[in-house]
Every structure is written in C-alpha cells, then in structure tokens.
Automatic annotation (TrEMBL):
Tagged with keyword Disulfide bond: no
Any Pfam family hit: Arm
InterPro entries, sorted: ARM-like, ARM-type_fold, Armadillo
Protein name in UniProt: U-box domain-containing protein 9-like
Natural source organism: Senna tora
Record's signal peptide: none
Keyword terms of this UniProt record: Repeat, Ubl conjugation pathway
Repeat as UniProt keyword: yes
Superkingdom as given in the UniProt entry: Eukaryota
Amino acid sequence: MISHWCKENGVDLPKPVRDIDEEVITDADRSHLNSLLNKLSMSISDQKEAAKELRLLTKRMPLFRILFRESSDLILKLLSPLTPGTASIHPDLHEDLITTVLNLSIHDDNKKMFAEIPLVIPLLIESLKCGTIQSRSNAAAAIFTLSALDSNKSNIGKSGAIKHLVALLEEGHTLAMKDAASAIFNLCLVHENKGRTVQEGAVLVILKKIMDGILVDELLAILALLSSHPKAVEEMSDLGAVPLLLDMIRKSTSERSKENCVAILHTICFNDRTKWKEIREEEKAKGTLAELAQCGTSRAKRKANGILERLNRSPTLTHTA
C-alpha cells in the first residue's frame, strides 16, 4: 500500500538500507543539510527558502532521508519553526515542512525515530486541523506511513489523531480523503483503534461517503475491519447498512467491494438476529446471496454460504428491531 501511494504521489521509495553504500554519504552532504537546518532558525525568508529546498531534496534524493536517521536532533531542528498556531500565519512554510516530514517518514529507520520524538505526532495532528489542504493531506499521509509499524499504530491511536482523520474524511476534499482513509485503515489493523474509530463517528461518515459513491473500495475495507467491533455492528444495523450492502453486491463490478460487503453482512447476521428477517425477505425476492455464492471470489462464496446456512437453519424466526 505504501509503495502504491509513493508511486501515485511521485515520491521515490528508498532502497533497502542494506543495499545502500553508506560511503556515498559525504561530509559535503552533511554540511549542506546542517546549513539548511540552521537557516530554519533565521529570518522567515531564510526559513521558507530552506524548507522548500528540504522538501525537494527529501523527495528526490533518498540519501537525505537517510541522513536524518543519524540523530533525532536533526528532526528537532527541522520541526523548530512548527510551533502551535503558526500554520495559518505562514501556510507555505508549514506545508513545506510537513511535506518534508512525510518524505522522511517513508524511510523505515525514520518511522520508529519519528514516533519516539514527543513533538512529531502532536504536530501532525495540529496539521490535520489547519493549514492548506495540501498540508492536511500530507499530515494524514505521514500518519499513514508511520503507522506501518505496529508499535506506532498504538501510539498514534492513543494520541487522538483518529478524531481528526475522520473529520478530514468527512469534509470531503478530494485531495485529502484518500490519505485520511488510508491512515484510518492502517490504524484499525490494531484492535484497540477500532473502538476509537467507531467512537469518533466513523461508521456514519463512511456509510454516507459510500452512498455518494466516494472511495467505495477503500471505505468498505475499513468497514470490514470495524465490523469486528460490536458497537460498529450495532451502528451499521441502526443506520440501514444491510439494504445498502445487499444493493452494492448486486450492482458493483468490483469483486473486492462485493467481498467486503458480504463479509460485513456475515458479521451483522451472526451478531444481530433482528436483521435475519430483512435479509431473508430480500434473498427470497432477489437471490443476491445465492448468486454471489455461485459466482463470487472464494472468500465471498464462503461468507454468502455461511449467511444462507444460518438463515435456512432458522426459517421461522421473524425478529424485528
């Protein structure tokens, strides 16, 4: 997923550390980096010039991403202009520095270091809330790349970032929604973050986006993850997810979407008996699950058959909400 994101956004993935000849990092490289970092403590014009060059260097030259792993002090110098409340005063400076953090976070060694510096995650959260839409999108993308490490998933979840990722997704900026969704998906791979995501209202936000045909594959994948949380199942049932999911199975041309739809329905069916009558009546009228059980992916067939078997075992149940 990270390599796909990098390709779409024109960022060069670093070579594996073991494949890099460390000797290509010269004293001149270190000197140039230190010169740029020192400029970040000078005048605003110097800061903006240095930030723009750092953004470009860390995007185009993996070598400069590697240099930052040598000391956390380098990262602290990079972040020094990003004090709370400055995003709206100098949005271009803020955007360049947040984008530099994103570029650096792609390197595996930097992921752990960044998350261990107390300043980094709060600054990314601040950037999710204000600044240019590019800054907010890149802050979400940085959280996505940092969350590739399981230890970071937990720390980011505890930080309160999920609330602001959900808000960014809800706002609907095309540029930012995909990065926010990718970050939410990664964070929800850790069970404790599923509850946090549900608590922040993600189920309603996601269902509305899906109904509008926005990021359907990506958002269904998040719902499928969340469906292992009881509160998410309850909310999906209450918000009318069952007919929506059945309709999508019939109409979607995406096998991935159909598979996630039936996986979510399977969880709802096995956790909420009040939906059995609704699913049974729809199946009797349209045969949606029977068709999927014949023509879907192996996982989709298994889930569809599981629902049908459950319904057939209890033909007289007519529970309603």
